[in-house]
Structures are given as structure tokens and as C-alpha cells.
Automatic annotation (TrEMBL):
Main location: membrane
Designated name of the protein: Ammonium transporter AmtB-like domain-containing protein
Species name: Oryza meyeriana var. granulata
Entry membrane topology: Multi-pass membrane protein
Domain of life (superkingdom): Eukaryota
Length: 464
């Protein structure tokens, strides 16, 4: 009888002992969910929120943001946000192209003992998967963040100006907040808590978007109150909502207890905020608004982001009530006082106001045990768990918000002034009148029954 050759066993080098397959799979899934928020999530949301003639250019902006962020991120920006220190607020630029397959061991020795004695399942400081998974996850965050900035300048920012803005803002603005709070910078060492980006992502994007709207200028008056395809907007909002499972759930950097808490809290706060916003609309206007419900969803998701894995469920519920009322007030009742700049989708309210609200409430409600589960820092606790330590924590949260807001106003202004010296920030009057057909040579909806100009050109070339 012929001998049967044994089935070859995969090389152990492909699955090293230090790699946790479950953590790695969850991190790659989380990166995918966050990436879907940027495209197609933001693209559909923006295309549905604006008038028909701006649908394509509005969808193009987050698509380009996700694409342009990748080479920036892998060639220099990832290490500026998470690499070795250059300055107290930024790391040294350098490539992160996965030549080193295991994560940097610089931070591991101080946290490995936490797993061995059972106090923490997998500490956030010691993720057990390749650097490629981390770079992918953080790229998705960077791309989504700069894509959010676009929400304030839809329908009038020049396409060439946007193409220059994305890599510059990612490099000079986003990396500073990320390193300062997440990557080992001075706010990290000071003990500022931002679980998944209430400051790094949403406050930065909201303030930068509002600043950009100031420099670019307002839309044409007849377009400021015009609506678009609201069903498309709702579809995009749904992708944003469900994608937030990876946005917050992936930030413990492992599939552990804290990740589950973060995901549940995310949806508790979002749903409560939706209901609170709807109630405000009914009480004041007499009827619920679908657009308002979507805005309440966003404010709830943003508000819980800095606290997702650091607070208990009852606190997430209270944060949902707060995020469905205070941003509603700033967007509606107080709009005349602060809406002197044409912020197209109101991201100052939905992202900046909600981000600061969530960051401060994190300082109020953060549970000591959950703080230690996520990242062991001695004394981290909310105000209700210790007036002295918690009060200091709240002050730290406020100070961090001021730093992030101030840096983004300054950096965004400088970037746009430099770009303005090279190309116009604003579309020409002809482009503003014609819309997508003048900017891209294409239209989102072929309502006339004719042939799209670009498709017609391609067909003619093919036939020839």
C-alpha cells in the first residue's frame, strides 16, 4: 500500500505565538466599518443633503479624502501621530508600510504583566496583532476626520483647493491632536481622556470645518435653504450609525470586555439622543423632523465617542439626553448668535459642540474600573467617583478641548491662506451657477433624458 504524504502544516511564522487571531480579526473588521463611514457613508449623506446640482461634487470630497489620506498616512503621518516623539505634541514623520510586521515593543514591557495577573484581558497599550492592522485602522480614522471637514464647505469650495487641503490638514492638524492625546504626547501624559475621538476627530473636524467655511465664504443665497434627496441622506446616515460600532468598538485595540461595553454604550446614547431631538422638535415645532432625527443620531454618536468604554450604561443614557438637547439648542434657538458663517451641514454643532459636551461629561461620569480596563492610569475617574480627582479631571478635559480647538483654528487658517496664494479657495461664478456639470463634467441625475457628457465622450472614443 502506497504511503500517504502528510498534509503540509502552515509555517508557524505566519501565525506567531504573540498574535491573537480574535483581536486581529476584530481590528480589521473595525477598520473596515470605519472606512465605510467615510465612503460610501459620508458620500451618500452629503449627496443627499445638498441640492441636485452639487450631489456629485459633495460625494467626491469624502471619496478623495479617503484616497488622499492613505499615502500621507503610510508615508509619514502615522508616525507623526503614533511614532517616536519629536515634540510634546507631534511624533517624528516616517514610513509605516508594514515592513515590520509586529507592533513596536516600546510600550509592551510595562503592560505585559497586567495580562498575566488577570487584571486586564488585553491592554490597549499592548495590542497583539501586526502593525499593518493598526495602520489600517488609524488611516480610516484620519480619512473620515478630514472628510467631516468637507461638510461645512459643500457647494462652493474649489476642487483643486480641496485636493491640496486634504494632505496638508491631515499632516499639520490631525496628527497633532492624535499624538497629543493618543500617541504619547503631553495631553496623554497629563491624563486627558478621549476614548475614541470626541476631541481628536469631532472637535477638530467641527472647528476646522467652521474655520474653512469662514475662509471659503458662503453659498449662493438661493441654495442655503434648498434640500436634496433626503432618502439618500438617511441611507448614508445609516451607514455612519452602524459603522460607529467599529469606530468606538475598535478602540480598545482588542475584542475584550471594554470593547463590548463601548459598542453597547454607543447605541444607547445614539438612540436616546434621537428621541431627545425628536421631542425637542415636537415641543417647539409641533412635528418631528426626519432631518432632525438624523442630526440627533449624529450628536449622540459624537457625544459618546470620548466616553464609550469609560462610562456605565446609565451614564450613556444621560449623555444621550444631553446630546439631543444642547446641540439642538445651539443649532436652532441660538443659531442667530453664532451662525454668521455658512456652515453647510452645521458640523460646528453636530461635531464640535457635541464633542466638547462628550469630553466634559467623560470627566464627570468616567468609571475607575472601566478606565483601568482600557488604559491603566492611576487615579483616572469621573467627578461623581471622587470630587477632588474628578474635578481635576474635568478641568483637564476643558483645557484639552481649548488646545484642540485653538490649534485647529490656527492650523486650518494658515493652510487655507497658503492654498489661496496658489489656487482659488472658492469656485468661480460659472461653476457656482452650473454645479457638478461645470466642476466634473458629470451630473448625478440624468433627469433630462439626454446622455451624460462624460459618458457620451467615452462612448464616442470607444466607437471610433
Amino acid at each position: 500500500m502506497a504511503s500517504v504524504s502528510p498534509v503540509p502544516v502552515a509555517s508557524t511564522a505566519a501565525v506567531p505565538e504573540w498574535l491573537n487571531k480574535g483581536d486581529n480579526a476584530w481590528q480589521m473588521l473595525s477598520a473596515t466599518l470605519v472606512g465605510l463611514q467615510g465612503f460610501p457613508g459620508l458620500a451618500l449623506f452629503y449627496a443627499g443633503a445638498v441640492t441636485r446640482k452639487w450631489a456629485l461634487s459633495s460625494a467626491f470630497m469624502p471619496l478623495y479624502a479617503m484616497a488622499a489620506a492613505m499615502p500621507c498616512w503610510t508615508l509619514w503621518a502615522h508616525n507623526m501621530a503614533f511614532g517616536r516623539r519629536l515634540l510634546p505634541f507631534v511624533g517624528r514623520p516616517g514610513p509605516a508600510l508594514a515592513q515590520d510586521y509586529m507592533l513596536s515593543q516600546a510600550l509592551l514591557p510595562s503592560t505585559l504583566h497586567l495580562r498575566s495577573n488577570g487584571e486586564v484581558e488585553t491592554a490597549a497599550m499592548a495590542p497583539l496583532y501586526p502593525s499593518a492592522s493598526m495602520v489600517l485602522f488609524q488611516w480610516a480614522f484620519a480619512g473620515v476626520t478630514v472628510g467631516l471637514v468637507a461638510g461645512a464647505v459643500l457647494g462652493r469650495m474649489g476642487v483643486k483647493a480641496w485636493m491640496a487641503f486634504v494632505p496638508l490638514w491631515t499632516t499639520l492638524s490631525y496628527t497633532v491632536g492624535a499624538y497629543s492625546i493618543w500617541g504619547g504626547g503631553f495631553l496623554f501624559h497629563w491624563g486627558v481622556m478621549d476614548y475614541s475621538g470626541g476631541y481628536v476627530v469631532h472637535l477638530a473636524a467641527g472647528v476646522s470645518g467652521y474655520t474653512a467655511a469662514y475662509w471659503v465664504g458662503p453659498r449662493r443665497k438661493e441654495e442655503e435653504m434648498a434640500g436634496g434627496n433626503l432618502l439618500l441622506m438617511v441611507a448614508g446616515a445609516g451607514i455612519l450609525w452602524m459603522g460607529w460600532t467599529g469606530f468606538n468598538g475598535g478602540d480598545p485595540f482588542s475584542a475584550n470586555t471594554d470593547s463590548s461595553v463601548a459598542v453597547l454604550n454607543t447605541h444607547i446614547c445614539a438612540t436616546t439622543s434621537i428621541l431627545a431631538w425628536i421631542c425637542c422638535d415636537v415641543v417647539v415645532r409641533g412635528r418631528p423632523s426626519v432631518v432632525g432625527a438624523v442630526q440627533g443620531m449624529i450628536t449622540g454618536l459624537v457625544c459618546i465617542t470620548p466616553a464609550a468604554g469609560l462610562v456605565q450604561g446609565w451614564a450613556a443614557l444621560l449623555m444621550g439626553v444631553a446630546s439631543g438637547t444642547l446641540p439642538w439648542y445651539t443649532m436652532n434657538a441660538a443659531a442667530a448668535m453664532i451662525n454668521k458663517v455658512d456652515d453647510t451641514l452645521g458640523i460646528l454643532h453636530t461635531h464640535a459642540v457635541s464633542g466638547v459636551l462628550g469630553g466634559v461629561l467623560t470627566g464627570v461620569f468616567a468609571h475607575p474600573t472601566l478606565c483601568n480596563m482600557f488604559l491603566p492610569v492611576t487615579g483616572s475617574r469621573g467627578l461623581i467617583y471622587g470630587v477632588s480627582a474628578g474635578g481635576v479631571q474635568v478641568l483637564k478635559q476643558v483645557a484639552a478641548a481649548l488646545f484642540v480647538a485653538g490649534w485647529n483654528v490656527a492650523a486650518t487658517s494658515i493652510i487655507l491662506v497658503v492654498i489661496r496664494a496658489l489656487v482659488p479657495l472658492r469656485m468661480t461664478e460659472e461653476e457656482l451657477l452650473a454645479g457638478d456639470i461645470a466642476v466634473h463634467g458629470e451630473e448625478a441625475y440624468n433627469v433630462s433624458g439626454g446622455t451624460n457628457s462624460t459618458l457620451s465622450h467615452d462612448t464616442e472614443v470607444g466607437n471610433s
